[in-house]
User: What shape does this take?
Amino acid sequence: MQQPLTRSRTSLFLSYRESRVGPTPLTPRYLDDDDYDDDPVEAEETAGLIQGADLRSKGLSTPALGRSRRRRKSPSSGAHHLPPQWLDWADKVDDIVLAIKPKMVQLDKLHAKHLLPGFKDRTAEEREIEALATSITADFRTCQSHIRRIAEQSQSLLANRPRDPVEAELKRIDLIMAANVQTALATRVQELSTTFRKKQADYLRQLKGHESRAVEMQTKAAYDPLFALADDEQTSRNALAPGTPSLAQQQLFAPSTLAATDAVDRRNAEIHSIAQSIADLADMFKDLSSLVIDQGTLLDRVDWNVEQMNTEVKGAVEELTQATRYQRRSGKCQLIFLLILLVIGCIIVLTLRPPKHLLPTSSSSTSAPSSSSSSSGAEDHIATNEEIAQKISEELNGRQLRQQTSAASAAVGGEENISYVDVAIIGAGPAGCMALDVLSRYSDRGLTVRCFDKRTAKLDNGQADGLNSRTLEIFESLGFIEKVQKEGSPMSEINFWNPDPETGRLLRTAKIPDTIPGLSRFQQTILHQARVETHLLEDASDHSQGKIAPERCMLPETLEFDQAASKDTQAYPITLKVRHLSDEESNPTAYTGENGGTRSGLFRSSLLSAAEEEALYKKSDKNQIETVKARYLIGCDGAHSWTRRQLGIKMIGDQTNFVWGVLDMIPLTNFPDIRMRCAVHSANAGSVMVIPQPKGLVRLYIQLPIQVKPGEYLDRSQITPDSILSTARKILHPYTLETEHIEWYTGYHIGQRMTESFGRANRIFLAGDACHTHSPKAGQGMNTSMQDTWNLCWKLGSVLTGTAEPNLLETYATEREVVARTLIDFDTQFSRLFSGKPASDTDGEDGVDLKQFKDVFAKSHYFSAGMSIRYGDSLVVGSALSRQHLAPKLPVGERFFSAQVVNQASATADQLTTRIPFTGAWRILVFAGDVAQPAVMERLRRLNVYLDGPESVVSKYTPPDGKRWDVVDVITVHCAERTSLELYDFPQPSIFHPHNYDRIYVDGPSHYHGDGKAYEAYGISKEEGAIVVVRPDQCETLLVFISNVGLIVGLEDTALLDDYFSRFMRPDPQGGYPGSLVKTVSPPDWTQVGTQEVAKTLAVPAVNGAISASTHH
Assistant: This one.
């Protein structure tokens, strides 16, 4: 086997040292190879000394040996090679090292001289020693600087990578040589520096010994009476002698000696610091050298492996080519192809063959029909075959969308088709689609969902179109916000048009931002309801591998609820019978275009009664009826909710007299603000709201000159596209308004009503328009509906997968009823101001103050953006437990707003909410504070010990086979300097899980996006920190906890965490609701059932053949 390449770096380095563009007259051009002995360093110094002697005799300076070597011509080539620039710095280091050695010898002599005893003034000697030591220290620093220059120039080789392989190889070898030279020079400087420091230390130690003995003598004289007496006698004798210093004079010299000692100590510390820096630099160069060598070895191995793989692939291709030729010549291949054709033909025949009970009767077959009747019979027969084939395809596709079904025998007359499901949903509007998307995130844990919708297909125009900022934040959490932003039209400004008080002519009276700046990262956006539903359903399909989708043409017939069985968590207390409709039966003629092909939404508006809406969907006794057993049911079936009526829940509220029309059109007008959101009040003709839409469309909400008495329904024939457009022209006069295309129209009767209850026994729930209705002008209908099921379905998913107790579902009604009531109150005031006639001097109190309308509209921005929702203290909102003062700008119970943070591992700036997408998991956000302080880091380590313990909220509620962050996910945000800490400085595994690099962030500046200042935005102290608990729906719930923010506590309030989660979480996830349903009858494998058996299943009549008399009033 071929071995990896090796390289000779020594010979290459010598070639660089010996090469130069041109020689100088002061040095020989080369040295013979015989001049080198075994020790290259000794040989270099010897040659330098010899050469220096010759040159000094001539009065010339002595050049370094290294310079003569790098002028040497390469033995392998006749031309000179230009050496790298770093060789100049290497030569300079050599020169400085050679200059340091004689200085050190001179310094040793001065030390020895200074330590000898004497009585002369030593100040000049001390200054000379200090000057020489400072010079040597400066030389060491210069060496360090030059070595760094070598590192910088070697790194510059990496910046410009040549395309020529030869040049690339040379540059790679240059990089290796530079690293080796760095290591050698650093080692050499370090050894010399170590010698220098040892000599300095010895000198200072001896000097300090002399001084300590002097101090000892003074101390002895001060405390020993005998010594003091002798000294006094000696002093008396010497006092008479002239020129002898007294004891007082000697004591005056002692402080100067101590000061000199302090200076020596400081100098010693500086020298030690310099030496340590040089040692660290040497270690760095060693590591760099090892890294470069390892990378080179790795590249060699990769090259070798690529060559081997290339050889083996070529061999495999040749073998495959030979096998292909053999297969083509084989007769077996042709036989297999023929059998495949036969199988496909049999499948087609079986698919088109009608069941026996749908074939013509014997009497009709024996008669001799006329030519015309024969033709008619053939057409009926063809239609029957197509209908049966379509039903077979729908049934097979529907079965593949259901994960757990159980059915009795499908082909025996009178037996019933029964399926079991965890959650059944009625209605595939925005609320139903949101429910499907949220619950799809739990499908991998065995949760099953079916959604029934009576419409034949999803919407393609009309209905709602406004998305507020909070809904867009939810879409970001679900992961498809980019698609919505790409298609939608953001609304930037709203203009107010009012009549001139004197002339009555329309005037623009005000402009205000449509969304409060800084309220959210997302502006309110216009996007058609059909596209919103499409994005939700596509996302649900992606997360369920195509298993979750609405089942169209399915009309609910009866609903039965076993109240007693609902207490059993394993029971299926809900029995739902649904009828399969044909496309014709589920597609109202009004929807297909009865006004010149213009699509109408009247069949779904508030102008229809519930009975009239049901009459639109034709039913045949031949339709199949299916029985569905469900654990939970969600009614998302609109204002005329069939689910609500089956439960006997009433709507409470008022109906106004105002009727409004809606047009989606392409306008031709000279109205200047047609692409702005506008609120237009005319003097006498009514009001218009203008909403620009994508693709050049504009939606107009137009107040019609029609009034309806309470309790009555309008004659819908009065509402046509032409009548609505005619009213709009009058309101916008004197501006003109024409159109080249009307996409959709509808009308509605303004009313504000709300249900008396949001469900039954925490098993059946109402959501969206099924539990609250209002006018569409505030743009809250679709948003509130989706936010209803957003709130409900994460709780259902948690209960059904066994991570939460059923009492968690009680919070749905308590939280959303408050939101619905606030919405009704807002819409009542807003609709009255918008629909009323502008006030004048003669109107008295009945007119509308247009200034008040503008003020109300401006103040409602916080509510209409979806940001005013704040859930009260409850099972999952720990307002009472929280330490709100730890994060005063994060109110417990509100949505958790985002702030910019920086990833500790990658230095990438990101929004904090994007790091907590919806997965069904709870988030514990640990705002640790300044962890560079030892006390703060120790506090974080204690928290990690708790979280890693068997009784913590992380360990207790995570399934044994689950990931550590599946149920409770811990994310840390600190505010220390990012570069002062390494990732592995943080405690493991709860704070930093090894190899999971998206768990630790820093509140600090980023390279490209500035400083997010998250701690400041949330009002969290950098000294105290806080723990914020965020619910799966990004609502702050606890401070130590914040769900939306649910809870806020201190970093050591772990008992509050335990108390909070124990109220609704299941400590044993495996002991709760099983992921797969347990039934007494095994479901059939629908992938193995033939088309004939499926056709028989379609034809099985429902039990008793009739609909329950208690339903469909």
